[in-house]
Amino acid sequence: MTPKNHSCYFPFPIGPFGGTGRGFVGGLVKRARLVWMTALCLLCGPFGATRAGEDPDPSQFGLPLLSEDDAPLESFPSRVSALVWQGPALDAGPGGSEDAVEYGMARLLPTVAAARPGGTKVTLGGLIQADAGWFNQSTSSRLAVGDVQDAAGLRRARFNAFGSVAENVDFRLALDFAAPARPSFVDAFLDFTKTPLIGNLRVGQFRQPEGLEVLTAQRFGVFMERAPNILLMPVRRMGIGTYNRSEDTRSTWFVSAYRTGTDQYADDLNDNGAFAGMARFTRLVWDGDHDKYLHLGGSFGFGGATSGKLQYGRLGGNSPEWGLFVGTIGTPEFTNSTPSFVNTGQFSALNTVLSNFEMVSTLGPCTVQGEFTTSQVNRPDLPYAFFYAYYGQISWFLTGESRPYNRNLGVLDRVIPLTNSRPGHPFGGAWEIAARISSIDLASGTINGGQLTDGTVGLSWYANPYTRLYFNFIHSCLQKEPIGPSNANVFAMRAQVDF
Description:
The chain is mainly beta and about 500 residues long. The protein folds into two domains: about 1-55, no CATH class; about 55-499, Porin (Beta Barrel). The chain contains four helices and 21 strands. Strands 2-3-4-5-6-7-8-9-10-13-14-15-18-19-20-21 form a 16-stranded antiparallel β-barrel. A hairpin with a 2-residue loop joins strand 9 (about 275-290) and strand 10. The two termini are about 35 Å apart.
């Protein structure tokens, strides 16, 4: 008998369960045999169909054939290179031409697929970001935020699984072992794809549709950390949403409803919990080519305040655009984490109106990007509070690459170097320089959260599509009463690999 597709073929008795039986005992034997065979199928099913000496067929593993947009890795034996490529094509991912291809994942590991067409497909992956940073503060900065400690550690350490369980049901689960909860649920959602009228339906914990930089995977970002606009955004919350793109692949939309009080464990247990809604719309105004485009977008939302309270700037890491967490939230060790330079503390609130405007334009090796974010908070028996943040940045690839664009989600994608670092050419790959100015104002009325302006310059080396080194220098200017103006300098670097 010749095995076909992913069917498990065993030319030997299945352990102690090779016999047959009738009655109660026979039923137990049959069930045990079924469990035993199922386990073996899960472990070796995708690989058992290839005979010795044969090169595997990628489609046999539930993988799409390499398209013209895929870039195979070099110097791998054919048995491995058939399973490996440098990220998905520009039209891959949710809503794209390739099913069960999660946006931006490396796909270095082979997909484990079920025997039947349209069955379960699972790919495992991960991300490691090892950081180090040194602070230099003025005397007034130490009075305003304390003596910020130099730090080294893991900024992100993630394991994830993504794939599909049916032709129209995708999923993603990601855990972070370096976040403040250790571990934390990062993404935990399922997508009902190819849904009539709405396109794709997402349920679970996911990034809410506000902001280009937030929705772009951080490992694809220009700098080590996002601009402080993120402090005004909901980011990841438990909710339900729908997203899709236009037939000409130039427009996207994403609408969601979510709970505002979701914690690091994806929970929101509160009878007074608040609900919110968010919508994002984007358009490729200029679509010159894959390396020439202009993207414009906007996000608008309305949210309630959980238990009548709001707070912006609780955690550090994005003000002053770099920092590390120590221990877990609620422990004494956590107080040693890099502090947030701006923080409103908890204040009374009824609801908030959120908005964000975004722009990115790429012309060959040069990319210009910026966003403006606002939050108008309506308060009980008090005038409303108004907070805002913005950033503008420019980056340039010295080696001629350009920053790819994902048309399915309206975000930026993985950089593919023109050459890779390799023995004999250790400093190959892509080299990028960048500069950014950012600012956030969390002072309004009786709320004194501070005003922070950062100037950041960076150098990045992409040794290959999955390995990257960052070098960032940040100069922070803080205005916070009663101390007044202060400044601090941060030099930080990161080694990153995702797989």
